[in-house]
Amino acid sequence: MTYEDGDMRLMMDDDPKAPLRLSSGRLSIVRYVFLVHIEDGIPSAFQRAALEYADAILIGWPEEDAEDVVTPEASQYDFIAQQFDWAESHVREFMESERADKADDMADSLVQVADCIAAVRKSYQPEFLLPTFAEIRRVVEDEWNEDMGRIEAENREAHPGIPSDDAPAAQAEASDGASADGASTQAPAPQSSDAQSSDAQSPDDSGASRA
User: Fold this and answer.
1) Under 8 Å CB-to-CB from 43, ≥6 apart: which residues?
2) Whole-model pTM above 0.90?
3) Tens digits of per-residue pLDDT, 53-63?
4) Are 100 and 19 within 8 A, CB to CB?
5) Are the C-beta atoms of residues 117 and 23 closer than 8 Å to each other?
6) Domain ranges, ordered by start, for the chain
7) To pair with 139 at 20 to 30 A between CA atoms, which of 29, 51, 132, 181?
């Protein structure tokens, strides 16, 4: 289901907590679609950060009757509904990027959706501490750099004296060289039966044949 601008504002007149109930579902769907889209590859640090940010916004999503959930004042309705509408606009951008197979653009839209949904959650659960995307991204990039450093160290250990980027190529060249050496030491192929018969002829027979 999609929502048009203004739909949520109308719903809030009768159901002030409708955005809280519906927002988490919208973000969950976008997050899941993005996860499926990138799961066959190796996500970049930015893509991983986008996923973890969405997770952080969704974790422990409160029920409407939770003790720390408040009913917003009518003066907040416009702000909350606007955040929901903006999230929906970014969902549409996300879908366009998915059709174009642009994973980084999808990640960017996911972050934008999560930002809007975070604002909605904060309106209903003001005491709940939510991280920013910048905070999540710093942590993920540190982890990413550590992972890359470990991979490079493993490559250097496996191929000493060779830059890690060249290690796979060097390994392939060594394998090709070994194959060539093996081929050069192979025994000569056996002669055909006709050649063996010719070699077995006596000099006299050969001369008679020429005569």
Assistant:
1) 51, 103
2) no
3) 999 999 999 99
4) no
5) yes
6) 7-155
7) 29
